[in-house]
Amino acid sequence: MDLTQAYPRSVHEKLHGVVQLARAIDKGKATANGNVGEYHYDCPMDKAVFEFLGIDAAKLLDVIKSAKSDAEIEAYVAPFIDAKSAAELETWNRQWVTTAPTGDSLKYFLELRDQVAPDRKDVTTWADLLDLDEKRPVPERVAA
């Protein structure tokens, strides 16, 4: 994974039924290869999914560094996901992609949205803003 040449997977993309995890792993793979670019492994969004699942970011990075395949990485995270109920996973996924930024992060969010897509006032979540910034289609919604 070379994040100086490509984007990580979308926040919306699920790995074993969990949003954000595939993106965090992509950033871990790029970190391990020394080509993470402007991205950051174990950023606040990664920390949130790791905390939800009970995954230690440093241990996962060690697994990523030594893995011979994506299957090995996925096998490592699977037990953490299996420990969650379907309802817990569904709640996490829904809340994660629909929660709007607040406090200090809201100001930064609005500044970034105005740079990326000033005409998209309907974009109110980090998941959608990151998709727009990374040139992925984001459906228009009724503005909040």
Short description:
The chain folds into two domains: 1-98, no CATH class; 100-144, no CATH class. The protein is built from seven helices and two strands.
The averaged pLDDT comes out at 93
Total strands: the figure is 2
Q: How does the major sheet shape up?
A: 2 strands, antiparallel
Count of helices?
Answer: 7
Arrangement of strands in the largest sheet: 1-2
Structural class: mainly alpha
Percent of sequence in beta strands: under 5%
User: Roughly how many Å is the radius of gyration?
Assistant: 16 Å
Low-confidence stretches: none
Number of domains: 2
Give the termini distance in whole angstroms: 36 Å
Could you give the order of the helices and strands? EEHHHHHHH
User: What overall geometry do the principal axes of the alpha carbons give?
Assistant: globular
**Helix content bin:** 55-70%
